[in-house]
Amino acid sequence: MIKNQSSAEKAVPKAPPVSMEELKRLNASLIRTNNDLMQYAHVASHDLQEPLRKIQLFASVLSESDSLSASDQQIVKKLKASASRVSLLISDLLVHSDVVNSSKMFRPVNLNVVISQIVDDFEIAIREKTATINVGNLPVVSGMALDMNQLFYNLIDNAFKYSDESRPLEISIECRTLAQSEVADYVDHPKPDHDYYDISVKDNGLGFDVRYAEQIYKVFRRLHPKELYKGSGIGLALCRSIVAKHDGVLFAESTPGFGSEFHIIIPQ
Questions:
Q1: Of 150, 145, 48, 45, residue with least CA distance to 97
Q2: DSSP 8-state class, residue 216
Q3: Quick check: 146 and 89 in contact, CB under 8 A?
Q4: Is the domain of 260 the same as that of 130?
Q5: Is 5 domain-assigned?
Q6: Residues 6+ apart with CB under 8 A from 114
Q7: Which of 29, 134, 171, 219 has the largest count of CB atoms under 10 Å?
Q8: Domain termination residue (choose one: 100, 124, 146)
Q9: Residue 152 sits in the same domain as residue 201
Q10: Where in the sequence is the domain holding 231, given as residue range(s)?
């Protein structure tokens, strides 16, 4: 009986050995995923939901007032629409935190459409700052549409937030396809048989010292006083998490006083 068990065990094929490099990659991916889940849960449960409930409550009260002019009613209508959009984002964040393999939800996303919608969202800010947003021909990538919306919205919002008041804001969004020899310079484990894009979001704003580049991607960490520049401090941290989830890399180049350029290295 024992002899038969031993023979059976010998007959079972052994799993191929896993390289140390692969183990490191899987471990890094697991750590990243766990960190993402913690950040998403915190943002959704504390930093977004409670302020949103108040906005929705006050907007509803205002919409029922008979003393508002037609233009004021239009403003309240936009306020309620914006609150609904944030609500959708929260729901999506919670879904992401529950999805083990989010790549199963990937679909072709036309970035030209995504950016066009975001530019519409910034209509008022563009007019107030006499800003210009120039957009080149962007690709279709495999990903989650709401993720891509949040990624580029945050990067454009960052450009508006840290613009130089002494000159009109200029933002340019361009894309180029990386040569295969270039991909390894940015991505440690590139996906085989995939082209990679370098999508840049460049502005002529305040810029920052690149010595502190990594600090801007940490949750609630910022390089400028929050009293002068509003924001929760999660925008760029979320951007990096989104890009990493899409098997890409996000980094920035900047010179104080001359603006910043964020590069999104992402597969097709």
A1: 45
A2: G
A3: yes
A4: yes
A5: no
A6: 145, 148, 149, 152
A7: 171
A8: 100
A9: yes
A10: 105-268
Please report, as a single letter, which amino acid is at residue 83: A
- Report yes or no on 13 lying in a domain: no
User: Are 245 and 186 within 8 A, CB to CB?
Assistant: no
* Neighbouring C-alpha atoms within 13 Å toward the C-beta of 107: 7
Q: What is the pLDDT of residues 51-107, one digit of tens each?
A: 777 888 888 888 888 888 888 888 888 888 777 767 766 665 565 554 444 555 788
pTM of the predicted model as reported, rounded to 2 decimal places: 0.63
Strand duo 107-110 + 259-267: pairing: unpaired
- Alpha helices by DSSP H, the chain: 2-11, 20-42, 49-63, 70-98, 111-121, 123-129, 145-161, 180-186, 235-245
Task: Indicate if 84 and 120 belong to the same structural domain.
Answer: no
The pair of structure tokens assigned to 228 is 């002068």
CATH number, residue 120: 3.30.565.10
pLDDT one-digit tens code per residue, 133-190: 999 999 999 998 888 998 999 899 989 988 888 999 999 999 999 998 888 888 888 8
